[in-house]
Amino acid sequence: MPETSVTHSPTVVEPIPTWARWACVSGGLVLVLDQVSKWWLQSLVPGGAMLSVKPDHWPAWLEWHHNPGVAWGMFGSVPWLVGILTLILIPVLIVIWWRSWRGSRTENLAAGLVLGGALGNAIDRVLAMAGHLAGVRDFIHVDLGFWPLNPWPTFNIADAGISVGFLLLIAHGLVPRRTVERSA
To answer: Is 0.90 surpassed by the pTM of this model?
Structure first.
């Protein structure tokens, strides 16, 4: 019987696509930082999670607050509607990003920030709908002493990710695209 040799081809590890590096890392970072900061600060709040307080020993920029609505407390009287809309909008944002934005690093970074922030706040909304929280946990208080930043709504890391992500998308959209001429 002839002897056959078996050759093993080396395993080819494909590089992580650029869109995944920028979107997944930025989104995951915002989501983890948001949730860790909320749970840690919640553990420091006297009386538990349902209070809105400003402990004396906290720095001026730190204030524990629950927001059942969206920015500035809008739609706070219908938190169930805000929760449902959040759970509908996250998959819509993912589909839009998947179909449209997976081009540049900036777009993917921005999409990751927005989606990570949306997921961070969605976790709070689901917990609020289940009766475990009074709303989205906000804790960063900005008061610069002049309008429109006085008072600015208390926010969290998820909100910051969403805001920075949208600003990046707007800035990216305002920058003219360079066209590459191809020689015939």
So the answer is: no
